[in-house]
Specification:
The complex is a heterodimer. Chain A is of the alpha+beta class. Chain A is built from six helices and three strands. Chain A is elongated, with a radius of gyration of 14 Å. The chains are: A alpha+beta, B alpha/beta. The interface between A and B is medium-sized, with 29 and 27 residues.
Chain lengths: ~130, ~400
């Protein structure tokens, strides 16, 4: 059902955990639907220097979370915002069709974390000015 | 964890499919090679097939204590038997009434025919169940009217194991002259079923659930009850189910029934012990783990548990990496993306249903295999909970 790449990320998820002093946090999905993930990012000079995730969900949900952290780490915020659900699925050498929409939320969580970072930064700027 | 690949393979998914008993295969083989007569013909080949067919019918009748073998109709399996019973009784009795009653935890091959009938001028009531999965008898009495022609309730649930109080349900059904159809697919071959003592009018059973071949089943129809046939044709099975009989399958089904009848009491006691050890082993060791269904009024093969904060499919994948096959009520393992209707009907929240795992035991399972799963499960659950953002705090909200 799953590709070897998906299973490999399910077995050994990369960047799993939380960042206590994260610069941006994004959560998508909810436990009622069976998939929920949170992504934490650290940003320095417009680059994602650290990224971690926590996920409740099926094998695909865990593997896509792991993969998106690998794809985004070291990228600029603009580059990271361009990562799509399709990119994540491709990097995993494909997902079963039924999982493409329900469990492939990791890119959305990443984008939400970046938005959270931008919002916080904007708020900080307003306080300063 | 599970970086190691294992050569061990343990099968705990017997509700989904069972191996065919080697003694069953043995009696089937001649009917796929040298014995190929059609029971409806006149020559000697045919007479041999006809006799074999009737012997198998007798064995099925004996297993469920039917009043005569003439009450057994062979079908292609439990799905057909359920459709035949529900639509067959509803259509046949539509002049008497247009109401059928079933429960909210039935198999889809009961639920969907009932839903279909509501598009054909019938009314269907889906009875609620309590936290253990017992059908509400009070509600059954309230809903039952003189318009009700059929009540269809499963003997026991393959998903949560709960065994229904059949005699009481039967008494209520017959108080208003409704027929009682019982889907005994999960129960049959595991616990003794006696259609006469239980007061059952129609009963669905399947071959594979008793270690017979797939694609064969039967519907018991009590003498005197007439139903509208779903499949019309050459008039086989007394016109109730046309089509040349699946002789190899039916022979195997008969043998499987004979073996089940002989070995059921010893085997079920063995499985009950394994089941209780399995459940206790998991629940004692793992915090936030719970049993689905009733602790004692449950099928001997059924270990249905749920684990908070994590999702069932990822548990199944983790078990599979360790060589263990099980099943889940999670949405991620279904085609509909909805968690099991049975788990929702017993009052579980979506997120609780998602974390359910079903182990169903069978003849070849050993105590060592149960010990192995009890041994590896805590680490699997711990690892997935470490990945999960959910904690006890969030579930309470």
């Amino acid at each position: 059902m799953y590709t070897d790449k998906v299973m490999e990320h399910f077995r050994n998820p990369r960047n799993m955990g939380e960042i206590s002093d994260a610069d941006g946090i994004g959560t998508v999905g909810n436990p009622v639907c069976g998939d929920m993930m949170t992504i934490y990012i650290k940003v320095k000079d417009n680059n994602i220097t650290d990224i971690k995730f926590k996920t409740f969900g099926c094998g695909a949900a865990i593997a896509t979370s792991s993969m998106v952290t690998e794809l985004a780490k070291g990228k600029t915020l603009e580059e990271a915002l361009k990562i799509t659900r399709g990119d994540v699925a491709d990097a995993l050498e494909g997902l079963p069709p039924i999982k493409m929409h329900c469990s492939n939320l990791a890119a959305d969580a990443l984008h939400a974390a970046i938005e959270d970072y931008n919002k916080k930064r904007k708020a900080e700027k307003e306080v300063k000015t | 964890m599970p970086n190691q690949t294992t050569t061990r393979r343990i099968y705990f998914d017997h509700t989904a499919g069972k191996p065919i008993d080697s003694r069953v295969i043995e009696v089937m083989l001649p009917y796929m090679t040298s014995s190929y007569g059609n029971p409806s013909s006149i020559h000697a080949f045919s007479q041999e097939a006809k006799q074999t067919l009737e012997e198998a019918r007798e064995k099925i009748a004996k297993l469920i204590n039917a009043e005569s073998k003439e009450s057994i109709v062979f079908t292609s399996g439990a799905t057909e038997s359920n459709n035949m019973a529900i639509k067959g009784v509803a259509y046949r009795n539509k002049n008497r009434g247009n109401h059928i009653i079933t429960s909210s935890i039935e198999h889809m091959s009961v639920i969907n025919p009932c839903k279909f009938l509501t598009t054909q001028g019938f009314k269907a009531t889906f009875l609620p169940v309590d936290q253990y999965g017992f059908v509400s008898l009070k509600k059954l009495e309230e809903e039952l009217t003189s318009e009700t022609t059929l009540i269809s309730i499963m003997y026991a649930s393959g998903e949560i194991g709960t065994i229904q109080p059949m005699k009481e349900i039967s008494k209520i059904a017959h108080s208003k002259n409704a027929f009682l159809h019982v889907d005994a697919t999960a129960a049959n071959g595991q616990i003794p079923i006696n259609v006469q003592n239980d007061g059952i009018d129609l009963l669905t059973i399947s071959s594979n659930d008793m270690y017979g071949p797939k694609g064969v089943g039967a519907l018991y129809i009590k003498k005197g009850i007439r139903i509208e046939p779903l499949i019309q044709g050459g008039g086989q099975e007394k016109g109730i189910r046309s089509g040349t009989e699946n002789i190899p399958g039916i022979v195997g089904f008969g043998k499987a029934a004979e073996i089940a009848q002989k070995e059921m009491s010893v085997e079920s006691k063995r499985l009950e012990k394994l089941r209780d050890k399995f459940i206790k082993g998991l629940l004692d060791q793992i915090p936030y783990s719970f049993l689905n269904g009733h602790p004692t009024k449950r099928l001997p093969d059924n270990v249905a548990v749920r684990f908070s904060f994590i999702e069932g499919e990822s548990i199944l994948l983790s078990l599979d990496m360790m060589g263990v096959a099980a099943s889940s009520g999670s949405a991620c393992t279904t085609k509909t993306l909805e968690p099991s209707h049975v788990l929702l009907a017993i009052g579980l929240k979506h997120e609780e249903a998602h974390g359910s795992v079903l182990f169903t035991l069978g003849r070849q399972n050993t105590k060592e295999e149960v010990d192995y799963v009890i041994d590896i499960m805590p680490d699997i659950i711990k690892r997935l909970r470490k990945i999960s953002p959910l904690t006890p705090k969030e579930l309470k909200e």
